[in-house]
Amino acid sequence: YKISMTQMEVLGVLGRGQYGVVHKVFHKPTKVTMALKEIRLELNQRALQQIIMELDVLHKARSPYIVDFYGAFFSESCVYYSMEYMDFGSLDRLYPAGIPEAVLAKITFAVVRGLQFLKDELNIIHRDVKPTNILVNKKGEVKLCDFGVSGELNKSLAKTHVGCQSYMAPERIVGPGSGPSGYTIQSDVWSLGLTIIEVAIGRFPYDNSGFANVFDQLNAIVHGDAPTLPADRYSDMACDFVAQCLNKDSKTRPTYQQLLDHEWMKHAESDDVDMQDWAERAHALFLARTSKSS
Ligand code: ATP
Ligand code: MG
């Protein structure tokens, strides 16, 4: 089945990233509302074709912790990627409301299971774990998106990357593993740790304002102490879990199975948390904030 632009009715804009816009669209043939991500790349036809082909493995990626993939195509110099529409958007929109520890634990559990699925079933490393790539729907389900399935796409994104907030692990910045080719599973575990703290405290854990430039920030990641969860607001279990993810020595960082065996995740798994209720409240607060500011 070939998906194309002419089948889409554009309903609105869901957000903007470094590489393009994500639209909410209605896919007329199937009557499914989807999110359509645009990635602007200055690439030749062959490279674009290669990316579309590599994205195809996503048709096999079915997990409750991974956003469903519907298809990809290219048009002019953009790759378009259609995926499951997640009503409440990404975590960065929902965390300013403050997140109770039980909810944080459930979110973390979903992300770890998602990352483990990508590694075990598809043999892929996410490469971009951060709050904007963790999506929530109105049922309160938490799913990962924007993972590095296509080698060709990873290559061209790495060339154009200009982030000012870095979720990069220390070993990605200096040492033998640095550079786009040195990505490992352990680097995703670091980004997971930073993401958990950001969601908990409501801002990026490294204080950007104190840095004169992006090199200062990279320096702090490599030479400074790793950030921690505030011990006065989170349990010892939660703090220990995050500290293990943010071990500066990548070789002794835990595997996904070890993370799932951690007591914080064991609790999260059996805990009965009303995620739908939390998601509805957090989203209502997001809407109230954005209508006030516009
Ligand atoms: P960056 O470009 O640095 O990776 P980003 O992840 O925010 O940042 P995009 O991936 O282009 O950039 O996404 C832009 C925004 O669109 C996201 O922040 C998210 O809020 C929203 N979004 C993305 N995918 C979906 C989806 N499937 N359903 C609903 N909203 C989405
Ligand atoms: Mg994204």
TrEMBL record:
- Say which enzyme class the record assigns: transferase
The Protein kinase domain extends over 8-265
What is the E.C. number?
Answer: 2.7.12.2
Entry annotated with the keyword Transferase? yes
| Keyword annotations of the record | ATP-binding, Kinase, Nucleotide-binding, Serine/threonine-protein kinase, Transferase
**Is the RNA-binding keyword given for this protein?**
no
Residues at which ATP binds: K37
As one GO molecular function, the record gives: MAP kinase kinase activity
Family per UniProt?
Belongs to the protein kinase superfamily. STE Ser/Thr protein kinase family. MAP kinase kinase subfamily.
Query: Protein name, please?
Result: mitogen-activated protein kinase kinase
Native species of this protein?
A: Coemansia umbellata
Lineage summary: Eukaryota, Fungi, Fungi incertae sedis, Zoopagomycota, Kickxellomycotina
What gene is it encoded by? wis1
Whole protein: which stretch is covered? 77 to 370 of 370
